[in-house]
Amino acid sequence: MDSPSPPADLEWSDSDVEDMLVDVEPRQLLPRVFQVEMRQLMYGFGDARQPREDSAALTEALLLEYVAAVVSRCVDVASTRGRRVPDVSDLRFLLRRDLRKLRRVNYLVAMKEVIDETTKKGKELESLGR
């Protein structure tokens, strides 16, 4: 099975984040669990080799708020559809007007299927003693 190619345009704008944060209530301070990864991502996207801790903390806080908003909206969509647990179709529904993000979700789902299929075949070969 051919692996899908990643979407060309994966950048996020400030308005993308603001659009998702409109209906979210401010949260208590969340623990900084992605501090190291956030600094590495910032460097990977062109920031200084050692980004400032406060910049990484702010970026992490924005990311966590964004993810919380998306999950909250997915739960709302799932409950509207009569389900207690959201699935990828609810996320696709939320992103239906943002083709760039929708393509990214579709790509990641397709890659997960490729990985699952490859893992399954690998386990079958192991069970045969090869």
From TrEMBL:
GO BP annotation list: transcription by RNA polymerase II
Transmembrane regions listed in the UniProt entry: none
Subcellular location: Nucleus
Keywords recorded for this protein, A-Z: Nucleus, Transcription, Transcription regulation
SUPFAM superfamilies with a match to the protein in the record: Histone-fold
Molecular function GO labels: protein heterodimerization activity
Domain of life: Eukaryota
Location, primary (coarse class): nucleus
GO-annotated cellular components: nucleus
Family of this protein: Belongs to the SPT3 family.
Record-given protein name: Transcription initiation factor TFIID subunit 13
Source organism: Cyanidium caldarium
Lineage, uppermost ranks: Eukaryota, Rhodophyta, Bangiophyceae, Cyanidiales, Cyanidiaceae
